[in-house]
């Protein structure tokens, strides 16, 4: 084709699909992934400010450390287990293994709910130890950090519940694959946040 023919060609009438260029197809990132990335960026900024505030407050002379409940170690193991199950569900979804997606999603939820129950028990242990007073800065920060983390985890359980319900009702793996992937990313993120919080609590 000559140069003049190419210039005269009405390219907008040429056959092809949107996103195709020289034989390659570009698929835009799903809006849900972009939304989750933006949400996690906002959460990271918020959690970072709380961590900085915690570190600054603990350097004050009136800071009196509290004994963190040993149950937090068990709770951490439960959250790690839930994150592992989520990753296994994601891997199964990529391979199209319906039964494994369903089973691993279910186990991830069980471990997550056990973690939340464990956190509630840890608060009760703290209360029984005599340190439970919101006027005490270490206790207030303990409740704030663990409470915020638990709140965001419960929000994630809403998405998990919908994906799990769809999996148990025979929906095709390819239709829930994105939900499983988003849940896995969110669970990994909250696990990382909890590890940072837990390390911070152990140092005080």
Q: How would you sum up this structure in a few lines?
A:
With 204 residues, the chain is mainly alpha-helical.
How are the elements arranged and paired?
Blueprint (H helix, E strand, L loop, with lengths): L2 H6 L11 E2 L2 E2 L5 H28 L12 H25 L2 H31 L8 H32 L4 H31 L1
Helix pairs in contact: 2-5, 2-6, 3-4, 3-6, 4-5, 5-6
Notes on the structure:
The protein has 204 residues and is mostly helical. It has one domain (32-203): Cytochrome c oxidase, subunit III, four-helix bundle (Four Helix Bundle (Hemerythrin (Met), subunit A), Up-down Bundle), CATH 1.20.120. The protein is built from six helices and two strands; from the N terminus they run αββααααα. The protein has helices at 3-8, 31-58, 71-95, 98-128, 137-168, 173-203, and strands spanning 20-21, 24-25.
**Portion of residues in helices?**
over 70%
* N-to-C series of helices and strands: HEEHHHHH
The chain-level mean pLDDT equals 81
What does the largest sheet look like? 2 strands, antiparallel
Task: Please name the defining characteristics of this protein.
Four Helix Bundle (Hemerythrin (Met), subunit A), elongated
């Amino acid at each position: 084709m000559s140069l003049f023919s190419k210039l005269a060609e009405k390219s907008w009438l040429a056959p092809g699909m949107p996103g195709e260029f020289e034989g390659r197809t570009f698929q835009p990132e799903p809006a849900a992934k972009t939304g989750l990335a933006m949400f996690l960026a906002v959460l990271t900024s918020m959690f970072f400010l709380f961590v900085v505030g915690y570190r600054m407050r603990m350097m004050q002379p009136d800071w009196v450390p509290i004994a963190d409940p040993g149950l937090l170690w068990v709770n951490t193991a439960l959250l790690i287990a839930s994150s592992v199950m989520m990753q296994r569900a994601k891997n199964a979804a990529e391979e199209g293994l319906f039964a494994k997606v369903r089973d691993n999603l279910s186990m991830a939820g069980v471990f997550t709910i056990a973690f939340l129950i464990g956190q509630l028990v840890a608060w009760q242990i703290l209360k029984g130890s005599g340190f439970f007073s919101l006027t005490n800065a270490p206790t207030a920060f303990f409740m704030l950090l663990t409470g915020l983390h638990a709140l965001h985890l419960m929000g994630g359980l809403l998405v998990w519940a919908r994906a799990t319900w769809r999996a148990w009702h025979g929906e095709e793996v390819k239709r829930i694959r994105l939900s499983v992937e988003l849940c896995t990313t969110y669970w990994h993120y909250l696990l990382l946040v909890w590890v940072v919080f837990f390390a911070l609590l152990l140092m005080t």
